[in-house]
Amino acid sequence: TTTKSTTEPTTTPHHTTTKSTTEPPTTMHHNTTNSTTELLHTTTKSTTEAPTTMHHNTTNSTTEAPTTMHHNTTNSTTEAPTTTHSNATTAPTPPPTTPPVPNPTVGNYSVKSDNVTVCLLAKMGLQFSFKMSENSSFQTLNFDPSANVTEVSGTCGSGGNDSSLLLKSDEITVHFVFTNVSQKFRLHALTLSVNLENGNVFNASNNNLSLWEASVGSSYMCRKEQSYNITDKLTLNTFQLQVQPFAVQNNKFNTAHECSMDDTSLLIPIIVGAALAGLIVIVMIAYVIGRRRTYVGYQTL
């Protein structure tokens, strides 16, 4: 028995063809399925042929490049930012500071009796600090003796008890009044008037002062800077001060009575004396202690 078996490949696979076309403008999805299923052909040339059935799932999908698709695609072009956000804090600009006022020029002033005899001499640099009101700040001005408009005048106390010195410029007018009581002179009154640039005028005076005291026939001198509170709104600063309002001789200052800050002649002797006294005390204490230890070393028999 001869069995001839010929097995032909079965050309009856199950083909599934899916064609999807997406048109760009309408953005709609069309699902078109064209399925072509061929009949299963089995050819058997023998009594028993083992059919071979192959299932082919072939999907032919043609997708055209859509112009509009549901893609979460973001095309962004990032340019270098021109504005940078920063949390840095710029320090505030400090207010401008007012430069300190320089020391005033020292001027020499004199008052003559009958336009011949000098009866009052003064040498000083004058600086005034004042404020217009309680809430305002102090302003500082110097009296400039080199200005051409400066006026010097006054009165002498020949036979009287008062002498005065008047100094005047475009901005400042100051009047000093000296009194003689029991052959002691002192400055007992001062009046100041200042013409400000804004048109205001500052005025202050004190008629109950007791400054620059010395004996009549001598002068008062204080070379170092001195500050005097004339009123609660006016302070007077003097530099290289020397005044003699009475008994001027030969147009020169007489023997000067120096202020306490200038009088250093007694300071050095006082310091040296105190040091010597302290040394003597230390020596005496050491001597007493030494003597007591010496007595302890001996015993009475």
Describe the main β-sheet briefly.
Answer: 7 strands, mixed
Distance, first to last CA? 167 Å
Shape: extended
- The CATH topology of the largest domain is Porin
Low-confidence stretches: 1-78
Keywords: Cell membrane, Disulfide bond, Endosome, Glycoprotein, Lysosome, Membrane, Signal, Transmembrane, Transmembrane helix
Organism: Sinocyclocheilus rhinocerous
Pfam family, one: Lamp2-like_luminal
Subcellular location: Cell membrane; Endosome membrane; Lysosome membrane
Give a verbal description of the structure.
Disulfide bonds join 222-259. Residues 1-108 are annotated as: Disordered. Residues 92-103 have a biased composition (Pro residues). Residues 1-91 have a biased composition (Low complexity). The chain has 301 residues and is mostly beta strands. The chain has one helix at 267-296, and strands at 14-23, 28-37, 107-113, 117-130, 139-142, 151-155, 162-168, 172-181, 184-195, 201-206, 211-215, 219-222, 226-231, 234-244, 256-258. The strands form three sheets. Strands 3, 4, 5, 12, 13, 14 and 15 form a seven-stranded mixed beta sheet that branches. Strands 6, 7, 8, 9, 10 and 11 form a six-stranded antiparallel beta sheet that branches. It has a two-stranded antiparallel sheet with strand order 1-2. The chain folds into two domains: 1-63, no CATH class; 107-258, Porin (Beta Barrel), CATH 2.40.160.110. The longest helix is centred in the C-terminal third of the chain and has 30 residues, at 267-296. Helices cover 10% and strands 38% of the residues. It is built from one helix and 15 strands; from the N terminus they run βββββββββββββββα.
